[in-house]
Every structure is written in C-alpha cells, then in structure tokens.
Design goal:
Oligomer: single chain
Number of strands: 3
Number of helices: 4
Structural class: alpha+beta
Helix content: 40-55%
Length: 137
C-alpha cells in the first residue's frame, strides 16, 4: 500500500468527510499520512501541517527517504529580560509618561533580582507561589 495523505476530521469541529477539502476554510482539519514505506514499514502519523501541497511534498520525501525530515524546534520560552524589553516597548508605544515607565523598570529590576536568586530564568517558571514569595520581599 503506497503512502496516502488524508485529512483527519474531528466530528466535534468538522462534519465533512471529504479527505481533500474541508468545510472549514479558515482552519481545515490536520493532514495525516498512512501506508507502507519502501522498506515495508507501516506508518500512520500526522504531518503537522494543514496545507495540502506541503503535505504532498512531505509524503514524497517520506517515500524517498523512509522518514520525515526533522524540523528544528526553537526554544520559544521567553526570558524575563526579553519580557521586560517588550513590555517597556509597548508602554512607550502607548505614550505613557516617563515616570510610569521608570516605576515599571524598577519593579522589573526587583523581579529579575528575585528570579536570579531562585534560579528562575523564563517567565513561564514564575508560578503563583513564586509570585507570592516575591510580594513578601
């Protein structure tokens, strides 16, 4: 059985059964691949795309090499200093006065010092107990 790409529909979100077209044009259902590769291995897995043309290219590459290309994953976590820079840029874009921006910079310095003491580097690591500890200081 050669490799075949198809849309995997979620009945709760899409009531279409057409494997090429999906009724939800804004966000179609995800595309999967199933079948046997040249070395006889059967696969059924998502292609992590919703674009039919890109999925067909991935299918061809999978048939040729026997495995999907590895897509490098970037570290998308935001550091506290990056968060501070973006927050201050946003405040400046809103034309807030310099005194307000200076106060927020002071709070960010305190947060960064607190986080460095506890080994916290990313904003996602600041959970409720650590924020409560920060407020106690």
């Amino acid at each position: 059985m050669p490799l075949e790409i198809y849309r995997r529909h979620n009945p709760a979100k899409c009531n279409s059964r057409d494997t090429v077209r999906c009724k939800d044009k804004r966000r179609p259902c995800p595309i999967w691949v199933r079948g046997s590769t040249n070395n006889g291995r059967y696969i059924r897995q998502p292609l992590k795309t919703r674009d039919w043309i890109k999925a067909d290219d991935l299918r061809r590459e999978l048939e040729a090499t026997g495995e999907l290309p590895k897509i490098p994953i970037e570290d998308t976590r935001t550091t506290i200093t990056t968060w501070q820079e973006k927050f201050i840029q946003n405040m400046k874009a809103e034309n807030l006065c310099e005194d307000t921006i200076r106060k927020y910079n002071l709070v960010f310095k305190q947060i960064i010092a607190f986080a460095n003491d506890r080994g916290i580097r990313f904003i996602a690591e600041l959970d409720l107990p650590s924020i409560q500890d920060f407020r106690k200081t």
